[in-house]
Amino acid sequence: MIFKNYVELTDHIISKAKKTPFAIVCADESHTMEAVIESYQKQLILPVFIGDKKNITEYLTANGLNASDFEIIDETDPTRAAQTAVSLVHDGSVRGIMKGKLDTSQLMKVLLKSENKLRTSSVVCAMSLMEIPYYHKLVAASDPALCIHPSLDQKAAIINNAVTALNNIGIECPKTAILSASESPNPKIPESLEAVQLKEMNQQGLIKNCIIDGPLSYDLCFDPESAKIKGLTSDVAGDPDLIIYPDLVTGNAVSKALVLNARAIGSSVILGTAVPVVLPSRAASVEEKVRNILLASASVN
Amino acid sequence: MIFKNYVELTDHIISKAKKTPFAIVCADESHTMEAVIESYQKQLILPVFIGDKKNITEYLTANGLNASDFEIIDETDPTRAAQTAVSLVHDGSVRGIMKGKLDTSQLMKVLLKSENKLRTSSVVCAMSLMEIPYYHKLVAASDPALCIHPSLDQKAAIINNAVTALNNIGIECPKTAILSASESPNPKIPESLEAVQLKEMNQQGLIKNCIIDGPLSYDLCFDPESAKIKGLTSDVAGDPDLIIYPDLVTGNAVSKALVLNARAIGSSVILGTAVPVVLPSRAASVEEKVRNILLASASVN
C-alpha cells in the first residue's frame, strides 16, 4: 500500500475504524486535550485520561462531550500517572501512550524501567513520517531523535521497529534506503560499509519484511532521475518508504531542514516499546500532535 | 554586507566590474562554453580558454563573438591543459580555474601536486552558497563535498577558507554556526564538544574575522523564532552567514535535501588553493555552472 499524503493515510486509518485505546498521561493541559479530543472525534483513538479528573471533566464538557462516556483516572502525580499507563498496557486496556504535561524524562524513566517490561526491542527509537514536497509519497525515517551513533546491530533493530510499524500501517514490504554520501562503499565512511552489511543481512533473511538497499546518497534516495542518470539498478533508489539515517546529527538536521525550509509536514512516534509512545515537543502545534497520534495509532497492529 | 538572493549578489559583483580572469581547462565542451560565454557577457569573468583551439573558436563565432578578442591556448591533453592553468596562476594571468571536459580527479591531481605549490591552506574543501526558501539571506556552508570527518584543526582551516572567501564577497564578519543536534554540548556527540572549542578559538582570536557560535541545532540556526522560544542569547542563532557541517554525510544530505525538496538554489566552489576552483558536476545545468562561476569570481579578493 502507498499513501501519497496525510489525507490518504488519515482516510485509510478512519476506514479501518479500529479506534485504538490510548492512555493520555497527565492529560489536563489544554493543547494536549485539544489534540486528543480532535483525534477522538476523527475516530483515531479512544482516550483513557489519566490526570486531574476535575480539570479533564471540565475540558470535555467545554468541548460538548459527556465526561461519563470516558474512562478518567484521577491521578495527579506524574510518576504514578505514568505507572498507571504501564498497568493499562499490561492488562490490555490501552495500545498506545501519549505524554501530556509531564517531562519526557519523567515519563520515559517509568516506561523504560526494567521491572515494567515495556521494552520489546533492544533499541527504543524515534520514527518520523514525512510528507515532503517533490516526493511522491509519505516516507518514514529513523532515527532523527534518540540514538546518537547506532551500531550495526542497533541499526538492524531500528529497521525492525520501523518495518513492524510500517507493516501495521499497511506498507507491506517497505523499500528501505540506508543513507550515506554516495552509492559507493568507502572504507573512510564506516556508515557506508554498514549499509552494505545491512543489505546483506536483508538478503540473508536476517532482516525481514522489507527490501534494503544502500549505501545511497540523498539524491539517489529521493530523485528517480538521479538514479536513472547514474544507471543504478535498485528496487529502492528513487522510491523508498523508509530512510535509515547514519546518525542522530544527520537525521536531526535533515528532518529539520525539510520542515523549516521545504515546509514538509511531519510526525513522529517512539517505537521499541510494547505500545507506541507519542512524545510531542512542547512547541508542537495541535495539528502536529494530532498527526503524531495518527501515526502512533496507525503503527499498532 | 548582506545579500538576500543571487540577483543581489550578481548585481553587486557586476557593479564592481572586476572581470576576474579565469582559466577554463579543456574548455571545448558545449555546456561549459555556454556557461563561460554567459558569465563573460555578464561581466563576471574574462576567460582564458585552454583546449582544442579550432573547436573553441567555432563555439565563440557561433555565439557572435570574435575569437581574436580572447586568449586561447591550444592544448588538447588534459594533464598538460591543467598544468598550463597552474602556470597561468603562478604568473598572475588568471585568478580562478574552471574544469571543462576532463575528470575531476585528473584536474585535482595536477592542482594538488606539491611541486605545483597551489595549496594555500592545510585543507582543500568545498563551500556552497545557498538561496533557501524561508531564510532571509544567502547562506554559505562547508564542507558538503570533500572532507569526510574533519578534525578540529581541519574545521578551523575550513572556517578560515570560507571566511576569507566571504570577506572577499563583501560579508565583513560572517556569523558562523557550528551545526550539531542541539545547543547543549554532549560528551556522546564529539562534534558538539568541538563546536565549543571552535567558539573558544574564535573568542581567543585564533580564528579571526568572524563570530562563531555552536553547537547549534538546525532550527536554532535557521529559525529566529526557535532561538527566541529557547531564550538563546546568540549573535549567530537565527541569522548565520556560514554553517559548518559536522561531517561530509550530514553536509551532503542537508544540502541535497534543500536543493531537491526545498528547491533551494545553490552553487559551490573549491577553496584552500591559491585561486578558487570551479568543479561543476557532470549533471549541472548551465544556470548552475554560471552560479558556480559567479561564486568563484566573487570569492577572489
Automatic annotation (TrEMBL), chains A, B:
<protein>
    <submittedName>
        <fullName>Phosphate butyryltransferase</fullName>
    </submittedName>
</protein>
<feature type="domain" description="Phosphate acetyl/butaryl transferase">
    <location>
        <begin position="82"/>
        <end position="296"/>
    </location>
</feature>
<dbReference type="InterPro" id="IPR050500">
    <property type="entry name" value="Phos_Acetyltrans/Butyryltrans"/>
</dbReference>
<comment type="similarity">
    <text>Belongs to the phosphate acetyltransferase and butyryltransferase family.</text>
</comment>
<keyword id="KW-0808">Transferase</keyword>
<dbReference type="InterPro" id="IPR002505">
    <property type="entry name" value="PTA_PTB"/>
</dbReference>
<keyword id="KW-0012">Acyltransferase</keyword>
<dbReference type="Pfam" id="PF01515">
    <property type="entry name" value="PTA_PTB"/>
</dbReference>
<dbReference type="GO" id="GO:0016746">
    <property type="term" value="F:acyltransferase activity"/>
</dbReference>
<dbReference type="InterPro" id="IPR012147">
    <property type="entry name" value="P_Ac_Bu_trans"/>
</dbReference>
